[in-house]
Amino acid sequence: MASKLTLSNRTGWTFVLPGFALIVTFIVLPFFFAIGLSLTNQRLLSPNPTQFVGLENYRQLLGLAVVTLKPERNDAGEIIRNEAGEIQYPRLREITRSEAYPQFRGMREWFRWQSGENVMVVIASDVVFMKALVNTFLFVLVVAPVQGSLALMLALLINHKLRGINLFRTIYFMPVVVSIVVVSLLWRFIYDGQNGLLNSILQALTFGLFQPVDWLGNPSTALPAVMAMSIWQAVGFHMVIWLAGLQTISPTLYEAAAVEGASRWQTFRYVTWPGLRNTAVLVLVVITMQGFALFAQIDVMTNGGPLDSTQTLVFQAVERGYGKQDISGGSTISVILFAIVLAISLIQRWLTRER
Amino acid sequence: MAFNPDNHGLRLFVRYLVLCLIALIFIFPLVFMINSSFKPDSQLLADTSSLRAFLPVGDISLNNYFGAFRRAPVGLFVLNSVLVTGATVLLSLLICSLAAFSFAFLRWKGRDVLLSIVIATLIIPFETIAIPLLLLVSKLPWIGLDGLHWGWLNTYRVQIIPWVADGLTIFLFVQYFKGLPGELIEASRVEGANWWQVYYRVVMPLSGPVLATAAILKFLVMYNQYLWPLIVVQQESYRPVMVGLGYFFQLNVAWGEVMAYLTLITVPVLIFYLLLQRAFIASIASTGVKG
User: Chain A contacts of B286, Cβ < 8 Å?
Assistant: First the structure.
């Protein structure tokens, strides 16, 4: 195609322009907007002019410190204990509201632990954001390996010439085409504490020994429940990507392995897995991106609760940017989210670079 | 290892058993949804404690469907979704394939830079730009039949136009076009066809598979839209089906009606999927070749 026939600046630009202009307007521009807005106090509708506030929004979100609470002592220098023998500590407020520590002003307790006779308290400017950050990472760290490997197992199971195998592939993929909103609502029924299908099934399997759990109403089970449902919903998607990868592996390699007398595990380890390297990277990248975007499940199932145990970054960005009309606060979370996604994809690219 | 036909039969049986059990895991919420949509609320909730939850038994009727239509403007929500999805899919196929045509077949100044920018947008998740985009569309101008307006909130266009062009669709077209024989394009140029004619007389007729892929991917994204319409459409008259769901959670929740609504908005997509399942699965698989 190196002839003059294909050289045309005018036509080239004309054909590209509509699509490129749309991408610039609705993807590239908002992306730079996000960065700009995160440095202001912009609101969706506000009578006051927008002001430049520098990194204040970031400080408001990311402010984090550890303070040590020393036991209260009486005049003799002995540790004061209450009737139950517990050590008495000064209240955190005495630090976060003290004139002596302006840097801790307005911060709240996130969590604490005992260290000898002292107590260490982690305080944060925005505890809800911190919980959202941790939950989002937890979600990705659990869902990526579990969903990725379950999807691979399904793909290996399906990748056989068996009568009717297409039917099973079709069924396993089915939740992918159903809206995540619909799926989330259905799973509210499955997880319900009173009429939930999951409790019924578990009770039937244990002959009534199982105590019903309010899966979404309990802070320790809510996030795992959302994880399990998310894995269920999209595992078929990744199964299909693994299948596409499996089909690129030459059958002659399997024939050679069979001739050499390789066991099934050896065949997988030395033929299948090396052939899936690129697919593995892709599956991980896609799950990671989807995981950091976690929103609809939370909005439909838990609203971030109970006790902020299912807060996520996108849910917080939307709650602030749209719910509270705090565009700058929502944009700041978006920028932090993007920085994380970018860093992770750079790390993944570096780990899987061609050597 | 000696080949034992009995052993082979047993292994085959176990394999099918495993496949069926896994199939049950994927299908049971949908079976529950469809069956529940025919039951009155009291029975629906009582049935969840037994296998009856998955069977169309007891007091079966279409009452929930009538109730859903009485409770919410279901027809309007469906119409909105069909309109927004249809318009976006069609515009996207046209605009993205034109851009890809230019990237794949033409040589012009700035081509490589523009293509890199398009590819680079693949790394920006929509969720990270939703909030600034909300501010942007709330201030954009629009010239309608009745003059100039400011602000795109509560319209069809705000649900359609930002979704028309995207990096993945353009990329899929570029990949496909690069696989087409270049001589064909040169030959039609030699015969005096202009570029527009090459596009719609030569390239488009050869692009069935990639058009299907791009259409299916866009369809799934658009019909299942939730976050974006949730924040840009407050007026009921422009709401799509997924956001319309909120209607059923005001005041007292009638679960039978919710199930009827969910069935109504899901089953057509499932039928569509079952009819075209090879194309659906192929389109997801083709997103995997980008690596």
Answer: 244
